[in-house]
Amino acid sequence: MSASIRPQERKANDGIARAAERRRSIRNYASAAIPEAELRDLLRLAGRAPSAYNVQPWRFVVVQTPELKQKLSAAAYGQQQILRAPATIVMYSDMLNALERMPESVHPDLPADKQQAAVDSFRAMFAAQSSEDRENWGVGQSNIALGYLLLLAEAKGFGTSPMLGFEPEKVKELLGLPAHVRVPALISIGYPGEEGFRPHRLPSETLVEFR
Ligand SMILES: Cc1cc2nc3c(=O)[nH]c(=O)nc-3n(C[C@H](O)[C@H](O)[C@H](O)COP(=O)(O)O)c2cc1C
Q1: What pTM was estimated for this model as a whole?
Q2: Architecture per CATH, 25-192
Q3: Are 166 and 183 in contact (CB under 8 A)?
Q4: What is the DSSP string of 1-44?
Q5: How does DSSP classify residue 187?
Q6: 163 CA distance to ligand 1 centroid (A)?
Q7: Inter-helix orientation angle 131-155/36-46, to 10°
Q8: I want to staple 75 with a disulfide (CB 3.0 to 4.6 A). Which of 17, 134, 170, 192 is the partner?
């Protein structure tokens, strides 16, 4: 079991580091579609993201049909990458559904009374909150999965364009999503058809301090 491996004996795996160095937004794509099984695997792995209380509020709708892509692009101020990409993932966050499904999210290896206690304490935490606060909190958790998704896509050789430039109410209406859910991002995805801009970031040493 990995728990018995001492930290210094863990094998370094720099695949994630390389994907982080390489990744950039890609807004043009080859015409080939990504096979559905690949997309399913990508979204399964994105769902390996950790979340507080293991709540997992992220949900995904993969938009592929030309008609829906047209409408989604219109709801995203005409952003062209939605039309160019073979698929655009609409990531939404649904805390109401996540709260209902807490008994499934809680770890099955916990003793039954501890499972129930975890469900109760999690639900109690949100009982007094407004739907807006609750769903905002869920967006924070969902963004962890967004980061996973973008890195995993890079590692698998796909190009992605994350987007916040869209009208959430129009996107929700288009897909028939419930009013309370939030949409943390749209993510166009395909095989890269361009290099993208070279990565440009604030120097890390200006953002990090050790005390
Ligand atoms: C949550 C999020 C929302 C974004 N929204 C848009 C968008 O609506 N349209 C767009 O062209 N790029 C969008 N971007 C891309 C950013 O501009 C880009 O990630 C940033 O400039 C860094 O460049 P890079 O992704 O190539 O590393 C978004 C990125 C993120 C993470």
Answers
A1: 0.94
A2: 3-Layer(aba) Sandwich (3.40)
A3: yes
A4: -GGGS-GGGSPP-THHHHHHHH--B---B-SPPPPHHHHHHHHH
A5: E
A6: 6
A7: 120
A8: 170
- Three-state DSSP at 180 gives coil
CA atoms within 13 Å, Cβ hemisphere of 21: 5
Residues 6+ apart with CB under 8 A from 89: 39, 43, 60, 61, 62, 63, 149, 186, 187, 188, 189
Query: Which pLDDT tens digit goes with each residue over 107-130?
Result: 999 999 999 999 999 999 988 899
Assigned token pair, 207? 């953002």
Domain boundaries, given as residue ranges, for the chain: 25-192
Closest Cα to atom 31, ligand 1: which residue?
162
Q: Is 159 helix (H, G, I), strand (E, B) or coil?
A: strand
Question: Which protein residues touch ligand 1 with a CB less than 6 Å away?
Answer: 24-25, 79, 162-165, 185, 196-197, 199
The helix/strand count (H/E) of the chain reads as 9, 4
